[in-house]
Every structure is written in C-alpha cells, then in structure tokens.
Amino acid sequence: SFVETFDKLDRSRWYISDGWSNGDHQNCTWSAKQVSVSDGTLKLGFQPEQSKGRDYVCGEVQTFKRFSYGTFEVRMKAAAGSGLNTGFFSFIGPVHKQPHDEIDFEVLGRDPSKVQVNQYVNGKSVGSAKKVDVAGGADKEFHDYAFVWQKDRIAWYVDGKLVEEATDPAKLPSHPSKIYLSLWGSNTLKSWMGAFVSPERQVTAEVKRVAYTAPGDACQFPESIVCKLHKGTQ
Q1: Catalytic positions, please?
Q2: With contact defined as beta carbons under 8 Å apart, do 54 and 183 qualify?
Q3: pTM score, whole prediction
Q4: Closest by alpha carbon to 119, among 161, 86, 148, 80?
Q5: Structure confidence at residue 230 (pLDDT)
C-alpha cells in the first residue's frame, strides 16, 4: 500500500515515459519535459513540438511496481480539448511479456463533463465503456476517482459514488499491473476522442494524489473510498 502526494517525484516509484509513443494512433511523443512536480501537484503536459516524427509532445508516468487486487485511487484535474485523453489506469501487456489487461478511467477532452470507465482482458475491450457525469466538470476542478479490483468484481467510484461495476468472470482482468497517469492526443481516433484541435500552447492535467491500498489494509487517508467502504456506505 502507498499514498503519493507529490511533494516530489519519487524516482524509485515512478518511471517517466520518454522518447517513444504507443502507436500510430498517438500524435505525440512521450517527453520527460512534459512531466513536472510543484506545490504538491504532478503536472502532465501536452504541447506543439516536433519530436521523433510527431508534431506534439506529451506526458506520462508509470509505476515500476506491479499491483494486483486492491483499491486504486487518484485525485486529478483533467485537460480539456477535442482529441485529448487524460488517463488513470492499471495496465500490463505484451511489452511486459504479459497478456494485455487494463482497468481505466479516461477523460476525453472533447467532453470533460464526463469520465469513461472500461476494462480490457487479453487485449480485448470487454467493459461497458460507460461515460459517467463528473459534477462541475473533470477539467474545472479536482475530483476523486477510484476502482476496487477484486478477483470476482471491479467497482468504479467517482467522488465517492459507485458508478459502475463488473462481475462477469470473463470480463475481469487477473494479471498484476502497473499504475499509469497520462495525457496524450490523437489525430485518428475521431469517433471516440473527437476531431483533434491543436492547442496553441501547453495544456496540462494535474494530479494531487495517487494511492493503492492492498486488500485487508487499513484506509490510508480520510477521503479514501476504503474508509467509506469500511463504514459500510457505498
């Protein structure tokens, strides 16, 4: 279990993606220069800049460690802009010599009034890809997002409220995964992310806190969904 409040960027916990992209669908190259920490906030940037054949650079961090069942939480403010994606998710895949398993929160900048929840098993999207309202807007202020991953269930929460769950055994990831925080863009995924609109200057997503609580461990901070669930309120 851990709680990260970004007093600094703990390089023993976080790996900064730098110098590549995730595929042709991504119009930006991950850049360490788009990752910074100040005033207890992790900032992930996206901005116009030529890098390795792409016209933009973007920011991502990932944990070195892999985490299995437990509670995953973030307090973040997403970036707005059609064609942009702010993500908090668990992921493992072929790049790690494992099947592709994933559990997602994604704010699509085309409509930051909502957050999308979804999951992947063995490389296939098996979730509802449900879009959930975020009161006041995911880009306007900080909100709390959490998912509880158990062997027989995934439950997603937004600001402490249960918004989606999955219980079908065929639709539940099972491989320990890394935790990712990212901001990226796409010119091609228009039906999902909207037509890309180039920002004139850097836009940022901001993260105040990330936490993982192992099954059976005590809740680690007062706002944690673990505290609320232990009190029997969902």
Answers
A1: 102, 106
A2: no
A3: 0.96
A4: 148
A5: 85
